[in-house]
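Anyone able to model this chain together with adenosine-5'-diphosphate?
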Amino acid sequence: MSKPASGTSGTQASDSVLARYEPVIGLEVHCQLKTASKLFCGCSTKFGALPNHHTCPVCLGMPGVLPVLNAQVVDYAVRMALAIGAQVAEVSVFARKQYFYPDLPKGYQITQYDLPYCSGGGVRLSSGKFVNMTRIHIEEDAGKNVHADSASFVDLNRAGIPLIEIVSQPELASPDEAADYLKRLRSLVRALDISDGNLEEGSFRCDANVSIRPIGQKTLGTRCEIKNLNSFRNIEKAIGYEILRQADVLDNGGAIKQQTLQFDAGTGRTSAMRSKEDSHDYRYFPDPDLGPLRISKERVAVIRAALPELPEAMAERFKREHGLNDYDAALLTSDRDLAHYYEKTLKLVGAKVQPKIVANWITSEFLREVNTREWNLAAPPLTAEHLAELLRLIGDETISGKIAKTVFETMVSEGGAPAEIVKAKGLVQVSDTGAIIAVIDKVLDASPKQVADYLGGAEKLIGFFVGAVMKESGGKMNPGLVNKVLKERLEARKK
Ligand code: ADP
Ligand code: MG
Ligand code: ZN
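re: yes, here you go
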């Protein structure tokens, strides 16, 4: 395993297990599409409304009502198909999947079964490995059961929200790869602007199918399916744990039972939920209320022509146009909002600041704050305008890069515009040669031994003098000027 899954020991696949067994992982991702209304009715899809306020006879599952397909859902779904290079079927079919659950009052879910709207395609991982897709299909979400102390409730606001289910081939080989695959999918649906990809709010949900097989065996082992993993961290932990659990069963002469598992993030363990249904249990049949879904070649062509720039293409452009390296380009394009932030800042800084400098500040200082303070990348409290202003102050030598870090910290903790912070705290860089000479002479007078050594050939001591001068000036002197003048003043002492 290239990198162990984070978390407590025992939740990661150990090397001794991986020397004997090969993990095989396939992911099913349920991705809510961000249309204004639901898949088969006009109810709002907005998150956070009072329970059962976004409902109507159709999504409540009343008998005798008729579903009407939301055309926007189909357009969004086709966008996704095109982005992963899948084939869009000209004719596909909505089917009823029958099962009983309180959050599904009509007793069946409308989904696509043997004739989904697209097939094939895939996603390239950061390692370069290509993961093939089995299929993507359109389906409706179910409602939500809410469990309280003495009673349970059903909230049907979510019932009928459009989903695409994205099913990968069993080709992922480690928890790492599974997480990377998922991050790529998420960045794709966000770039396509078809989903907000929010794991915590449940608009992007992942089930992981995990099996192991003795190294060298061709046939796949029996899989277990871990349901509803709601963070990248939990996905890695759950899969890592499951690999070890299955190895333990096989090592002790047991057999893996195909079953559905749940993951407890507290204990880091998976446990059985129910035995796995077979598809014939669901009695799928074409929904008689919905005709076949026809997607014309012309409609696909229109959608293709309007596709936005995708993360991979954007990363290539950043490398080509801005001279960024692979790492910066991949990181900055991993999220749509982050890429916009970078491009906006870059546009505002002007020619005196290199794109690489802008990238460095965003990938290090800015992203550190985004992660620790959980900033919303769509509207971070530290705006692109303010970051650009800060970088311009470095570019025109008003402040040094070092002082800029102090100003940045103040911007983060107290807010405010960088120019004002610099003014209020008296941080403007000193570029007045007279003032610089005065400090330099003071430092040189105080260090006669180092001066003699330097003049005797120990030129490395220049760093010592620069450090002393910067310290004496509170870091405010222009470092380029300090270097130049220092050498002159030292040379002058030769005579
Ligand atoms: P279902 O809908 O019943 O879960 P699918 O055939 O749609 O079944 O498969 C779901 C997922 O399980 C796919 O992502 C597939 O890659 C994965 N999968 C299938 N067989 C295995 C296996 N032996 N090991 C790991 N993953 C598997
Ligand atoms: Mg499944
Ligand atoms: Zn409705």
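Residues 24-28, 134, 167-170, 209-211, 220-221, 223, 225 surround adenosine-5'-diphosphate (ligand 1) (CB under 6 Å).
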